[in-house]
Amino acid sequence: MDLTDIPGEAYTDDESPPDLDELDTPDSLLKSGPIRERLLDSVIGLRTPTKVSTIADRADCDTETARDYLGWFHEMGLVHRHDGHPVRYKRNDAYFQWRRRNKIREDYSDQEIVDALAATLEAIDAYRTQFDAQHPDEVSLVNATREQDLSTEAAWEALSEWETLERRAALLDTARRTDPVSRRTPGHVDA
């Protein structure tokens, strides 16, 4: 039996299978929330300065509404405004990093952060040993597939995971060093 087959006994005589045409499309689900949330979702994905009209199209709202919210997001520090004709906006990565650090400090104790950092550094050391390099940017994907006897996909996944671990270690270390409530360095924690 194929896992996608529906067994005959799944429906009783008085039931019928669902009508898939009646379900909401993914596109309609993404565009059915409040405008502010749709704009925020759009802003989070802005890696390059983007025109207001493009952002409005992505959020399925009019340009003036987008302009108003983007001005508010700029005042809050969520986005950078690039003046010119046309005005463009880009997400403020520093703001999102700050939010992530604060969330870590709120959700985890100093010891839990240190433990997570230790585990992350251990995994990084394993990749450094495996690829005989200090950072994933130093590793050639072509050479890694040959030298490690890995498929291209497996080597790429390993290097991508290593890069993610490097970013996680930096984030955890910053969270460990900064107490967002008192803006002071927390006390010593034995690792």
Question: How does this model look, in words?
Answer:
- Strand 2 and strand 3 form a beta hairpin.
- The chain has helices at 26-30, 35-44, 52-59, 63-76, 93-107, 110-131, 141-147, 152-177; strands at 50-51, 79-82, 88-91.
- 56% of the residues lie in helices and 5% in strands.
- Helix 2 crosses helix 4 and helix 7 (141-147) crosses helix 8 (152-177).
- The protein starts with 25 loop residues before the first helix and ends in a 14-residue tail after the last helix.
- With 191 residues, it is mainly alpha-helical.
- It has a three-stranded antiparallel β-sheet with strand order 1-3-2.
Radius of gyration: 24 Å
Straight-line distance between termini: 52 Å
Major beta-sheet overview? 3 strands, antiparallel
Give the total of beta strands: 3
Give the averaged pLDDT, no decimals: 84
Unreliable spans are 183-188
- The amount of beta strand, in percent, is 5-15%
Helix vs. strand class: mainly alpha
Helical amount among residues, as a percent range? Answer: 55-70%
Using the alpha-carbon principal axes, give the shape: extended
**Secondary-structure element pattern, one letter each:** HHEHHEEHHHH
For the biggest β-sheet, the strand order reads 1-3-2
Provide a count of the helices: 8
